[in-house]
Amino acid sequence: MAETVLLPTPTVREQSRRQPTRVGKSYFIRTFGCQMNEHDSERIAGQFEMDGLSRADEIDSADVVYINTCTIRENADNRMYGNLGQLKAVKDLNPSMTLIVGGCAAQKDRDLVREKAPWVDVVMGTHNLDRVLDLLDHAENWGPITEVVDELQAMPSSLPVRRELEHSAWVTIQVGCNNTCTFCIVPSVRGVEISRRPGDIVREVERLAANGVVEVTLLGQNVDTYGRDLAIDGRRRPIFGDLLRRVGAIEGIERVRFTSPHPNDFRIDVAEAMAETASVCEQLHFPLQSGSDEILRKMHRGYNTKKYLERLAMAREVIHGLAVSTDIIVGFPGETDEDFERTMEVVEEARFDAAFTFIFSPRPGTAAASMTEEFVPDEVIQERFDRLVELQNRISTEKNEELVGKTVEVLSEGPSRKRADVATTRTRTGKVVSVPGEFASGTFLDVVIQSAGHHSLVGTAI
Prior knowledge:
Blueprint lengths: L2 E2 L7 H6 L8 E6 L3 H16 L3 E2 L8 E6 L4 H20 L4 E6 H5 L1 H7 L5 E3 L7 H11 L2 E3 L20 E5 L1 E2 L10 H5 L3 E2 L2 H13 L4 E5 L20 H9 L6 E5 L8 H9 L6 E3 L7 H7 L5 H14 L4 E8 L6 H14 L3 E6 L18 H24 L5 E9 L6 E6 L4 E5 L7 E9 L3 E6 L1
Parallel strand pairs: 1-7, 2-3, 2-4, 4-5, 5-6, 6-7, 8-11, 11-12, 13-14, 14-15, 18-20
Antiparallel strand pairs: 9-10, 16-17, 16-19, 17-18, 19-20
Helix pairs in contact: 9-10, 10-12, 13-14
C-alpha cells in the first residue's frame, strides 16, 4: 500500500542548492486540460531538467513519466485512466520507470487513482508542484507515495520553467476561485482565490523579456478579481486593470494576453486598460455558459443575459477590433427546448469569433451532479449540441471572412505539425493563420489573408 505522508518542505535556498542527481536519465510529460495545467507541466519540466533529466521523445523510453490530469469533465477522467492502463504494460516492460500522476484528478481522487492504478509510484496534487523532486526521491528509495495537500496557503515561490515556445510564456497571477458555479469542480481542486503580489509578477515578466520572450499570457481562474485578497493600499479591490498596464509597459513585451475573465466581474477599467495599453491584445474570452436566465440562475453564474450582453457591448465599444470567444454548456440539468433556443438567440446576437462548446458532464462533488431528476436525455443533448456547433461554425466563418484581403500582423509559432514548409502563426486577436514559408518561432510578419474557414485562415507573407 502506498504511503501517504507529508515530507519536510525545503526552503527556496535549499532547492536552489540541490545538485543534479539524475544526469543521463530522461522524462516525459503528458498534459490534459487547461492552460493552467500546461503551465504547471512547464514548471514540472523545469524542475526535472534542474535535476539533470532530459526530455524523451517517446513515453516508452522515459525513465520518469509525469501525467498531469484534468477532471473538469468525465471524458477527461476516462482518458486519464485509459492512459494509466496503457502505461501499466509499458511499466511491466520497463520496471525501473517511475510513474507520477499529478494535477486536478489526483487532487480530487487520490485514493481512487491508487485503487485503479496501484502501479503508479507517486500521486500528488495541484498544491505541491515544488515537491516533485522530493517525492521522486522517496519513490525511488522507499516505494510508492501519495502526497496531496488539501489547501494552498500562499502562492508558491518561483520555480524553474521549461517552455514549449521560447518567445511565449505563461505567467500565473492567481490560483483558486471563490465562485460557486454549480457545474464546476475547480474550487475543490484548486482551492480559494489567492493572488500573487504585483511586484513579483512584474519582476517575472521583466526576466522573461530579458530572455527573449515577446508574448506573455496571464493566468488565473477569474482574473477580473485579481488582487482583491491583497488589500493593496489598504483597499480590498480588484486591480487587474492596473496589472495589465504595468505588464504591458515592460520593454520587450509585444503581446499580452490573459485568461479567464468572468462576465460578472468584468468592469470598464479593465476594458480601458486593454484599449490604452498597446501591447495588450484585442482578444477577450468571455464565457457565456447559457443564454437562458433560468439556467444561468441554476448555474450560480451571477448575471443574466441582459447584463452579459451589455458588458459585451461595452467591451466592443471601448476596444477597437476586439475578437471574442466564449464557453457554452449544452444539456445542463433542467434545460428545456425554450432554454436552448434562447442560447441559440444569444449566440446569434453576440456573434462570437469562436465558441468552445461542451456537453454537460456531471462531476461528483458539484451541486449540479445531484440534479439527477433533471438530467436531459443524451439524444436530446446531442441534437442541440450539433445545432449549436453548426450555428457557431457559420458565424465564425463569416467573422473570419471579413479579414480576407486585409493585412494583419502575425507571430510565428514555427512549422506546422503537418507541413514543415508552412508556418503556424497567430494574430493579435488569437486567430490561427497558416503561412507558406519557413519562419522561425518568434518571428513577427505582416500577411495578407487569402482565405478563411471557421477554425483558421490562410495568408501570404509580405
